[in-house]
Design brief:
alpha/beta, 6-stranded mixed beta sheet, two-stranded parallel ribbon, single chain
Length: 269
């Protein structure tokens, strides 16, 4: 079994990514197996911003159904399906690692939940065959960045087992500040400043600063009024290890304040 020596943080932007071919990010996700990760993983663990629970939870299902957890979008989006197999074994392994390595007292299993749009929208473009088993892990918005970083650290050994670890969130996420008059591709200064701070911190390996982003980043509360869209980043970062090298693998903008900045973290040998 081939090891996976990278973890990823993907900004999944708007659910319209599922149908809108004008979005630059859509082309990035579609080019995934050619340009980013040609290696086919054994299974995929997705930490999505759209599953937020009091205690860490994994979904242990045979088949993933498609959750359309968004409202007010065009009808065709509600007909999209991404029915990848579940990864029950991986879910149980995640639970075991979080408790043994991460010292978590409680990890729940959800035996009904499928994939939310933070998982299936990007994966539908990246792995359209839907033939790789997928498990989701929830975030805890009542916790902080360091908590999620440590959660990732507890899961690091999964890479040696051929598991692709993906944090799916958003580099910026303030839906009240979207600008519907701006041309796609342009960004608003406060959002760009946060996005650049995040990029520079990651590329310089200042993971401690990123863990404390609420104190250290410019416009932190404007970029993320709530933290759940950044926490998947901390998990991916932690799972790659302290000496991991970050690389920005994509950046683009939608509606002025929604960044698609995405990163890979390559573990040091």
């Amino acid at each position: 079994m081939e090891k996976v020596n990278q973890t990823f943080f993907l900004s999944h932007g708007s659910p319209t990514l599922s149908i809108d071919d004008t979005l630059e990010a859509r082309q990035f996700f579609k080019s995934w197996t050619h340009k980013v990760l040609p290696q086919k993983p054994k299974s995929i663990l997705v930490i999505s911003a759209h599953w937020d629970t009091k205690f860490p939870s994994v979904n242990t299902v045979l088949h993933n159904n498609t959750i359309h957890d968004f409202s007010g979008f065009p009808d065709p989006m509600y007909k999209l399906k991404y029915e990848a197999p579940g990864a029950i074994e991986l879910g149980k392994r995640v639970k075991e690692l979080l408790m043994k390595e991460g010292g978590m007292k409680r990890v729940d299993e959800d035996t009904k939940r499928g994939l939310d749009h933070g998982a299936w929208v990007p994966l539908m473009l990246m792995y359209p065959e839907a033939d790789i088993p997928i498990c989701q892990l929830s975030v805890q918005s009542n916790q902080n960045g360091s908590y999620h970083y440590n959660m990732g650290k507890a899961l690091a050994s999964l890479k040696d087992e051929g598991v692709l670890i993906i944090g799916s969130g958003s580099a910026t996420h303030n839906l009240r500040k979207l600008d519907f008059n701006i041309t796609n591709g342009s960004s608003i200064p406060w959002a760009l400043e946060f996005d650049h701070w995040l990029r520079d911190s990651l590329l310089q390996g200042r993971y401690g600063d990123v863990n404390e982003w609420e104190e250290r980043a410019p416009n932190a509360k404007m970029a993320h009024p709530l933290p759940e869209h950044l926490y998947p980043l901390h998990v991916a970062m932690g799972a790659a290890g302290e000496d991991a090298k970050a690389e920005q693998i994509h950046t683009s903008w939608q509606l002025g304040t929604l960044s698609y900045s995405s990163y890979s973290f390559t573990s040091s040998p």
